[in-house]
Amino acid sequence: MMTKITASAALALLTACGSASVAEQEAAAQTRTASAPLTIAGIRIGMGAQEVQATLARSGWKIETSAGEAWAATVDHEAKRQRGVFPVEEPKNGVAVLNATKGDERLIVEFQPMPTGDAVKLVKYVAPAAGRTPEEIGAEMVKRYGKPGFSQIVGSTYEASWCTSGDRCRQIWGNPHQGLEVRLDVYGKLNIALSQGVAAERAWQNAVARAVGGGTAPKSSF
What we know:
Elements: H1 7-16, H2 22-30, H3 49-58, E1 62-68, H4 71-83, E2 94-102, E3 105-112, E4 119-128, H5 134-145, E5 150-154, E6 157-163, E7 179-184, E8 189-195, H6 198-212
Antiparallel strand pairs: 1-2, 2-3, 3-4, 4-8, 5-6, 6-7, 7-8
Helix pairs in contact: 1-2, 4-6
């Protein structure tokens, strides 16, 4: 019978035997999967627009939304684009972007249209550090999300990343699966971003292509 050994378990075994190099330890750390759900202000990837608005309203956020194309309009838009029909004007019955404020806190939520309604694909949060040190913010983030796949403190700045599905975690942008990034910049601003990952974006593009009748979207050159 074969036994599946996770990267963290293998690292622990190697370390105990004195066989894990520094490079191996760093590689295992950078593919660590987040141990807690990745959310910002209660918002998760894939959450519907109505649920997002209800969640934020319960927490006292002031909300503004920008209209976007719903699923049917998105499919029709793509079909017209493929036929060379320009300009394309579709009704804006969906939610493209949500902006929310609460005191000094700012939140931006981006959606993509789905057959079941608009769903969260990206969340960005910005707020003052309010006098907290990089070490204090780091401790708060670990308490909220678990140990990060990557983190560092340089002077008055802090950055850390939490990844999923074994993605390398030096940074989240361009990773296949969803991830969360925290940055405290030199101006004392705390920036947190939650991204769905490129695999979900690719799957969405293919879903639109299938709905139009064009099979799958062409692969990117990059």
